[in-house]
Amino acid sequence: MDPYAVLGVARDASPEDIKRAFRELARQHHPDRNPEDSGAQKRFQDINSAYQLLSDPARRRNFDRFGSDGGSSRPTPGPSGFGGFPGGFGGSVNIEDLFGEVFGGRGAAVSLDVEAAVDLAFEEAALGCTKTIQYDRLDSCDRCAGEGCEPGTQRARCRTCQGRGRVAVAAFGLFQLGAERPCPACAGLGSIPATPCGSCAGSGVRMRSRKLDVTVPPGIEHGARQSVRGGGNRATGGQSVGDLELLIRVRAHREFQRQADEVMSELALPFVTATLGGPVTVTTLHGPVTHVVPSGTQAGTVLRLKGQGIPHRFRRGRGDHLLKVSVTIPTRLSARAEELVRQLDGELREDSSGSMFSRIKNWF
């Protein structure tokens, strides 16, 4: 068995990548979630074995070098079917980490937090906005109001934990004797539905779509994260609610680029305007702005429009808008225009400084 192939990770995968892959596959192939799939238990055992090998640095090194772990550092399996996981786990597995805070029915770990992406236009990220997003999360079952019982029935004391909500972690590693964890049968509630709800199978929660208005602050950047308290999954029995983690994704702009809180764009000046100077109208985030270009402006010059950039996140004021100048030189001239340029050339040659002539010469 190739543990990398089982978990679907690369051979140079980090421990975090390996753990993430294991959790996802464990949730997907857990036998309790696939009661009618006869192969689910075998797949789950293979996933568990692959994680046990790759999460142990010594065993992973042996496998990478020799194609097997050589039997070294092999963890001792727990009792069969322990905690709803056939075959159990070895002592290297953190139980609270794997089972998590939520038990999806009979022991499958589910994360309380939910992630969703928010796609923004450049202007929306720069100036702030309100976006309506839609995402899926575990929420209270509307049929049983989160109780897990068929309407008209009640909950009964859990026989597995005798109503305590926790069970002992017996024979699960030398240093964990006597430890306890939430009961996998009742998800730590101490009671189970006498007649499970037909809509949520007794879990008290269902996957439901939700719309939410999110306020995006001005100046937020691509890749930033924003947390919405209480926007995540709801635990079984209505115990707690996770958070919604928003990943901000900002689309590129056709003209503008961002550098910290400054906006950068290109300003193409006609030859005459660059030479003689004059007013030009510039498009900024905050609307059109008139700016006077000084005479003799060179290509590559950066002009600064104060306060026309992106609002600062944590202080008052805004950044600037930077204009990088390019000069447009005509490529085709009429005979009349060509003659005028030659006359200009002659007059510029008589300029005692010669500076203006040199600049125009270089532009051509």
Overview of the molecule:
The protein has 364 residues and is of the alpha+beta class. It has 9 helices and 17 strands. It has helices spanning 3-7, 15-29, 40-54, 57-66, 95-99, 122-127, 271-276, 335-349, 355-363; strands at residues 102-103, 109-110, 114-120, 129-140, 155-157, 166-168, 180-182, 191-193, 205-216, 225-228, 244-250, 257-259, 262-270, 278-284, 287-293, 302-305, 321-328. The strands form 7 sheets. The chain has a 4-stranded mixed β-sheet with strand order 12-13-17-16. Strand 1 and strand 2 form a beta hairpin. Helix 2 packs antiparallel against helix 3. The N and C termini lie far apart (70 Å).
Write a short abstract of this structure:
With 364 residues, this protein is of the alpha+beta class. Helix content is 24%, strand content 26%. The protein contains nine helices and 17 strands.
Mean pLDDT: 80
Number of strands: 17
| Poorly predicted segments | 71-109, 171-177
Q: Helical segment tally?
A: 9
Spatial extent as radius of gyration: 33 Å
Shape: elongated
